[in-house]
Amino acid sequence: MLPRDRLAAMLDDLMPVVRAAGDVLVRWRAELAQVRTEFKGRRELVTVADREAERAVVGHLLAAYPEHAVLAEEGVLTPAGRPHREADLVWIVDPLDGTTNFVHDLPHVAVAVALVERGVPVLGIVHAPMLGQTWSAARGVGAFRNGMPIRTSPTAELADALLATGFSYNRNEPGKDDNSARLARALPSCRDLRRFGSAEIDLCHVADGRFDGYWELYLAPYDVAAGAVVVQEAGGRVSDLSGGDDWVYGGSILASNGVLHDRLLAVVGDR
Predict the structure, then answer these.
(1) Helices (H), 122-216
(2) What is the phi/psi pair of residue 81, to 5°?
(3) Sign of CA dihedral 148, 56, 124, 266
(4) Strand 89-97 vs strand 45-47: parallel, antiparallel, or unpaired?
(5) How far apart are CA 117 and CA 104, in angstroms?
(6) Residue boundaries of the structural domains of the chain
(7) Helices 4-29 and 48-64: crossing angle, nearest 10°?
(8) 199-207 and 221-233 are packed helices; what angle lies between their axes, rounded to 10 degrees?
(9) CATH of 158-268, one of 3.40.190.80, 3.30.930.10, 3.20.20.70, 3.40.50.1760
(10) Of 246, 244, 241, nearest in space to 269 by CA
(11) For the residues 108-121, what does the mean pLDDT come to?
């Protein structure tokens, strides 16, 4: 198990790298008319900004931590969507969480980097350059926004809760859950609900008490690993939508302030 001081040193090492990747996104945002957009699926987008930001992060990881594995979304320097080697320690990289937001010039986009130790995320950085906010956390180190400690909300009643969710690109496909039934159950039960289009930022908003809970389906590890560490270190709880621990690779996630978790599971969880 990686010690606390080693994880803290890794946070310090990665912070300027993640910020530099964020600078790539800011630069390309100023030239959106020149950004070539491609489709990875029927609705899922990828741009040159994704690839350039990923190269900045993954290039550093391969050089600084050659004994570790890297799982990056776009496959610029490593295989797309899978680790490039077997290892107990795996870096998970999303160079641009919220690509659709980016293409439409909306500010909710982030660079996210997580470290997973034997299947358990233990370190996460989520940098939202257009929002001027960076969340970071590591096991036993705590959770921070722009260097200041954060905690989840104390909200104890679902009726007082502000929730968030998202909608998969897999909607309108046979056998896929489009999240509409869960949304219909949640909305009458809570104060209100938001959808910002970046899973990593939504998770960090749970960590810093802005949201009281968040759920989504059909997510990849690079959509959730970093932000979930921030939630946990901020005092919150993370599970899959069955209430179990298969949220890194299992495709569904529920994050909360902890107090509301079981009640949220009863409303939006698998039935």
Answers:
(1) 180-186, 199-207
(2) 75, 15
(3) positive
(4) unpaired
(5) 36
(6) 4-149, 158-268
(7) 150
(8) 10
(9) 3.40.190.80
(10) 241
(11) 97
Q: What is the pLDDT of residue 80?
A: 85
Phi, psi of 237 (to 5 degrees): -130, 145
Classify domain 4-149 by CATH number.
3.30.540.10
The reply to whether 158-268 shares the fold of 4-149 is no
Place of tokens 């930001």: 53
Q: Token pair of 32, please?
A: 């959106």
Instruction: Return the closest-CA partner of residue 68 out of 87, 51, 54, 49.
Output: 87
Q: Which residue has the tokens 């996104």?
A: 25
Burial class (CB within 10 angstroms; exposed 0-12, middle 13-18, buried 19+) of 94: buried
Instruction: Tell me the pLDDT tens digit for each residue of 135-194.
Output: 999 999 999 999 999 999 999 999 999 999 999 877 667 778 999 999 999 999 999 999
